Amino acid sequence: MIPDRLVAGYKSFLGDRFSRERQRYEVLAESGQNPEILIIGCCDSRVSPEVIFDAGPGEIFVVRNVANIVPPYETNGQFHGTSAALEFAVEALKVRHIVVMGHASCGGIRSFAQKSAPLSSGDFIGKWMSIIAPAADTLDDPGDNPSDNYMMRLNLAAIEQSLANLMTFGSVRRRVSAGELQLHGAYFGVATGLLLVRDPETGRFAPLAEDVGTPPSLLRCD
Amino acid sequence: MIPDRLVAGYKSFLGDRFSRERQRYEVLAESGQNPEILIIGCCDSRVSPEVIFDAGPGEIFVVRNVANIVPPYETNGQFHGTSAALEFAVEALKVRHIVVMGHASCGGIRSFAQKSAPLSSGDFIGKWMSIIAPAADTLDDPGDNPSDNYMMRLNLAAIEQSLANLMTFGSVRRRVSAGELQLHGAYFGVATGLLLVRDPETGRFAPLAEDVGTPPSLLRCD
Amino acid sequence: MIPDRLVAGYKSFLGDRFSRERQRYEVLAESGQNPEILIIGCCDSRVSPEVIFDAGPGEIFVVRNVANIVPPYETNGQFHGTSAALEFAVEALKVRHIVVMGHASCGGIRSFAQKSAPLSSGDFIGKWMSIIAPAADTLDDPGDNPSDNYMMRLNLAAIEQSLANLMTFGSVRRRVSAGELQLHGAYFGVATGLLLVRDPETGRFAPLAEDVGTPPSLLRCD
Amino acid sequence: MIPDRLVAGYKSFLGDRFSRERQRYEVLAESGQNPEILIIGCCDSRVSPEVIFDAGPGEIFVVRNVANIVPPYETNGQFHGTSAALEFAVEALKVRHIVVMGHASCGGIRSFAQKSAPLSSGDFIGKWMSIIAPAADTLDDPGDNPSDNYMMRLNLAAIEQSLANLMTFGSVRRRVSAGELQLHGAYFGVATGLLLVRDPETGRFAPLAEDVGTPPSLLRCD
Questions:
Q1: Mind listing the pLDDT tens digit for each residue in B112-162?
Q2: Are B43 and B28 in the same domain?
Q3: Which residue range(s) make up the domain with C45?
Q4: Is the domain of B47 the same as that of B92?
Q5: Count: domains in chain B
Q6: Would you call C72 and A134 a contact, using CB atoms and an 8 Å cutoff?
Q7: D12, D19, D20, D45: which to substitute to probe chain C, counting the most C Cβ within 10 Å?
Q8: Whose C-alpha in A204, B10, B148, C210 is 20 to 30 A from the C-alpha of C87?
Q9: β-bridge mates for residue C97, sequence order
Q10: Of the ranges B75-84, C44-53, C68-77, which is most confident?
Q11: ipTM, two decimals
Q12: Quick one: average pLDDT of D69-96?
């Protein structure tokens, strides 16, 4: 049977949050969803977009794959889950913001940086993570034992890669040109709670800290 | 800049939930994640797994794609995001439960049932949703104007398809045989909050309602 | 035997241009090439980059393929001629400018716009031109009989696509960020000789006409 | 902005060559191109086919890739730029001659002969140059430090390979059999200006020297 933890969690949701927001759920079921934001996040159990942005039902359309990657537009191959979600969000829902959100201690990024052995004969992780190879090309070679600092920089470079890949989709490019869509990068520090946000002018990531009065101790990004 | 809604939501998270759970985040950053549950859910903005199961950081590894689909194991083609996440969850994290969770009013399911026109020349949604074609083959032809009831049945059939596709992965099959991994199906009614759970014996979906004292009015699954 | 036209042309080259520039050829053979510019142009017989820019030996590294296309960075598949040339130009030659140059009456663009039947069972042109499908997505549907104006707009949109695809290469992105590399778009009007150049700020193409005192009659871009 | 060198070169073209040949450009724009010759040349900045053969607009359809390579006919994989150009030239333009033209000091050939390290993680050059591996198999192993002479012989062998690969395209084979298409090999000595041309009977390359009265000193092919 479904694990007890989920049964208990669902009871809690039903008695608490669903009770309070029930009308909202009913309206959303009636009218359909109409989110303005697409977040492409990681599957990691510590980085739920709805939690980190305290979002309610209907607010964020969420793709979660390993290491929050957007592949480039390509039509060979058959099944492109992330491209499908992107197409749906942009063309059908007409979202106005796309946020690619990475996070510290990402297992996918580490696997790539450490050139980990395949996990199965399919080597799905190896193939999937190869999408960020050109991001690694923008950094110096880390040698055999990549540091945490290198992995953070690789993570930010991979977000840049995904933002560049987003622009290979004609629908994205058209809406960005028309001012109807903005692309953003963000990076969540699990230990510190600190969120780095990409400056669209300079491409640099800086903490959203001042804005939120984060105490100095949070400024370390693990 | 990053939308105000996200800035405000992040502030709220930082001041409230992160403050309360800070130690847990720090421990999780130190020790790494160790979730026991993988949920494969839909990108839809109304069905966050962490919300529906009131889950905290570290509890659920989450894949979200359009219509919560697991493709079959296949190695031709290059990038398989969902298979990569599955491989990581099963082989690296050794999760003990996989839940495929559908929901009412799923845009991907509707797009397939209504044979919608491609959203772009890439037709990513069309190709992606074609994975559930064999699920549709298990149902009668709905004609040109599929009913809501048909779409719910198609959704449940698609969950069956994904559960069968999961079993095409050797690592999944091996762990299921060894009793180390259980596969589950679930379906969330957005309007009612009702959760249907699949009975692994009979394959039928039934409300978790009695368990949670859901009032009769919730028994309608929209 | 090699066609007479080439024999005669080569004699002419040897007696005229090679005689005059012989020292330059000798120096270039000794020192190796060191061009600062990569032009990605079309195979079309009317649009030689060396002719249009009156370039001498050693000045321009030239890729010519059908419709002057840059594919996105991708590593599946085996042989990527254009990506190979790009890698060589950027990483080995360290060019400082990349110009994607389209032209009027491009057969590849027309073939795509008119959804022409495959030329052979391999359908190499069809597959190759499919790279610009997302560019077509940025324009309105031209219907069954696309106008010349539509084909020009598709051509400019395809140049945008190639510029976006260039940015999916890590080496390109890194050098652009560092100010070591600039990307340009251009479009040559065969009948008029007019060259449109892309404004990097606005993304709009405008004639280089004022700069060169082009008479008004040249302002029509066929 | 577009580099000054190109602006100046374009002005020169417009004032000189375009002025003189304007009618030809207009006619070509009106009637479309109708070249009889396809040249497959190298991207190298020192070997423009239009310069070496003193060709005017409309005379030569030109593919330029690294090391003037024709891949064999193959349909798996998606984007084949050179095969697409070949298909277009043979099937749509019905060219009567195809010239594969190599040149001295080719960086692609050298990279292959010296087993150079990948230039980026994509290793596009390495993959692309692997097409000539069977050509290298026709020569003795050059050891770790291949001589210039070896590299010239490898270059000629690679041209043979490309001519053989051309014959793997059914459309080429058919037209060659019907006497409608001829295949040629050529090799340009950058330092000397000397052009070696392949004898279709013997397969040997010999200078076009007598024909053009090249002085003996040019007979060295660097």
A1: 999 999 998 889 999 999 999 999 999 998 988 999 999 999 999 999 999
A2: no
A3: 33-219
A4: yes
A5: 2
A6: no
A7: D45
A8: A204
A9: C37, C182
A10: C44-53
A11: 0.93
A12: 88
In a domain, A217, yes or no: no
The CATH number assigned to the domain holding C80 equals: 3.40.1050.10
Q: How far apart are CA A93 and CA A72, in angstroms?
A: 21
Is A155 inside any structural domain?
yes
Who among A168, A170, A174 is closest to C168 (CB)? Answer: A168
Please tell me if residue A23 touches chain D, with a CB cutoff of 8 Å. Answer: no
Q: Which residues contact A42 (CB under 8 A, 6 or more apart)?
A: A64, A65, A66, A67, A68, A101, A102, A103, A106, A108
Q: What is the pLDDT of residue B180?
A: 97
Does the structure show a pLDDT above 90 at A76?
no
Contacts of D79 in chain C (CB under 8 A): 71, 77, 80, 127-128, 130-131
Q: Which residue of B has its CA nearest to A9?
A: B53
C50 in contact with D, Cβ within 8 Å? yes
Mutant choice from A22, A28, A54, A222 vs B, greatest count of B C-beta within 10 A: A54
B125 and B51 inside one domain: yes
Same-domain status, B1 and B97: no
**Cβ B84 vs Cβ A65: under 8 Å:** yes
Same domain, A90 and A129: yes
Identify how many contiguous H helices and E strands chain B contains and give both numbers.
Answer: 10, 6
pLDDT for D164 beyond 80: yes
A71 token code pair: 């592949």
Average pLDDT, chain A: 91
Residue D217 pLDDT grade (very low, low, confident, very high; cuts 50, 70, 90): very low
- Min Cα distance C127 → chain A (Å) is 9
Instruction: Tell me, yes or no, whether B60 and B158 share the same domain.
Output: yes
Residues of B in contact with C133 (CB under 8 A): 121-122
E-strand spans in chain A?
37-42, 60-65, 97-103, 182-188, 195-198, 205-207
End-to-end CA distance of chain D: 38
